[in-house]
């Protein structure tokens, strides 16, 4: 289940799961590796603010479509330049199709849909619960690992942070943010399920699977976007265009290259530490650039969720 956990963590913001071998740690991380990890956390954390800005001029469907198409084009070109062999076999392609749906298409829509009503910083906090979903799925889908008492308590702590975010009217119809918050959490669950599927893809490299997922997602989303949104009629504001370019090319494209760099140099387990950086940068950028504020409940939720994640996966890190 360790591979399930690591895949789920590193797909937390890129939304792209990939098969990795966690049994081998290439070497001890260097200062450069820590610096790259820090920058990667900033890039992924900035995606929530970019989504919020993009939504000023376009719909969630357009945010999803443009992000997927930009990333898909960039990763396809990269794969062609590197002459990366694509996955083979009907079973692999079936799994990649499910990963494109659960790890890209649905989450890429749910997060901006939710962020129409909630702050970017709150979205980054809610997605931080993703590793706890990995522990739950690992318990039921792994034959050699079950919950320990410590992990069970850690999950209770982490999910209590989620309830704190929802507030005392969490399940009341008067809570207007209930469905947007639930949508973001649902996106995190989709990432985790796609991570479980990713561990079952055989004979394919991480970069080829990631590129193929985006290419498949692009093929699926393009006709829907053209038919429903009619993008030639959309008046894109400058700030929305810049935010969309950042999402597709920087938070996804460049971040993918940095992620792969870290995997090769320091290993996937080291990369999983980024799960603790993403919400911190998401909160920071929301406050600095969007004028967002944090309530006492939200601050308490940050502490509870990250504490739950830390103690729940401590032995794996």
Chain-wise SSE layout:
Layout: H1 2-10, H2 31-54, H3 60-82, H4 90-114, H5 120-127, H6 130-141, H7 149-166, H8 178-198, H9 206-228, H10 238-266, H11 268-271, H12 274-290, H13 296-313
Helix pairs in contact: 1-6, 1-8, 2-5, 2-10, 2-12, 3-4, 3-9, 3-10, 4-8, 4-9, 5-8, 5-12, 6-8, 7-13
Report on the structure:
With 317 residues, this protein is mostly helical. It has one domain. The protein contains 13 helices and no strands. Helix 2 (31-54) packs antiparallel against helix 10 (238-266) and helix 4 (90-114) packs across helix 9 (206-228). Residues 1-5 and 12-25 have low confidence and may be disordered.
Look at the helices and sheets and give the structural class: mainly alpha
Beta strand %: under 5%
Which runs of at least 5 residues are low in confidence (pLDDT < 50)? 1-5, 12-25
- State Rg: 18 Å
Number of helical segments?
13
Average of pLDDT: 82
Output the helix-strand order: HHHHHHHHHHHHH
Question: What's the shape?
Answer: globular
Distance between the termini: 13 Å
Protein name: EamA domain-containing protein
Keywords: Membrane, Transmembrane, Transmembrane helix
Organism: marine metagenome
Subcellular location: Membrane
Summarize this structure as a short list of keywords or feature phrases:
EamA_dom, disordered N terminus, mainly alpha, 0% strand, 317 residues
């Amino acid at each position: 289940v360790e591979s399930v956990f690591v895949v789920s963590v590193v797909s937390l913001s890129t939304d792209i799961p990939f098969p990795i071998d966690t049994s081998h740690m290439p070497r001890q991380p260097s200062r450069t590796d820590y610096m790259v990890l820090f920058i990667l956390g900033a890039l992924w954390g900035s995606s929530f603010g970019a989504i919020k800005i993009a939504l000023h001029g376009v719909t969630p469907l357009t945010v999803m479509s443009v992000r997927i198409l930009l990333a898909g084009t960039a990763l396809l070109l990269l794969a062609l330049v590197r002459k990366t062999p694509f996955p083979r076999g009907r079973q692999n392609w079936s799994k990649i199709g499910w990963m494109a749906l659960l790890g890209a298409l649905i989450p890429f829509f749910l997060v901006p849909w939710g962020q129409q009503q909630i702050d970017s910083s709150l979205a980054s906090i809610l997605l931080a619960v993703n590793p706890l979903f990995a522990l739950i799925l690992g318990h039921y889908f792994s034959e050699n690992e079950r919950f320990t008492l410590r992990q069970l308590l850690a999950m209770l702590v982490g999910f209590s942070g989620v309830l704190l975010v929802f507030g005392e009217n969490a399940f009341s119809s008067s809570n207007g943010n209930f469905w947007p918050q639930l949508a973001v959490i649902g996106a995190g669950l989709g990432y985790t399920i796609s991570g479980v599927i990713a561990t079952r893809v055989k004979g394919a490299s991480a970069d080829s699977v990631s590129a193929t997922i985006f290419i498949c997602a692009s093929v699926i989303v393009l006709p829907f976007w053209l038919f429903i949104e009619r993008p030639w009629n959309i008046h894109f504001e400058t700030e929305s265009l810049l935010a969309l370019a950042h999402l597709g090319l920087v938070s996804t494209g460049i971040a993918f290259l940095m992620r792969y760099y870290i995997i090769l140099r320091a290993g996937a387990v080291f990369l999983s530490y980024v799960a603790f950086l993403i919400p911190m940068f998401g909160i920071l950028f929301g406050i600095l650039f969007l004028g967002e504020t944090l309530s006492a409940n939200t601050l308490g939720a940050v502490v509870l969720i990250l504490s739950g994640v830390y103690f729940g996966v401590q032995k794996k890190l």
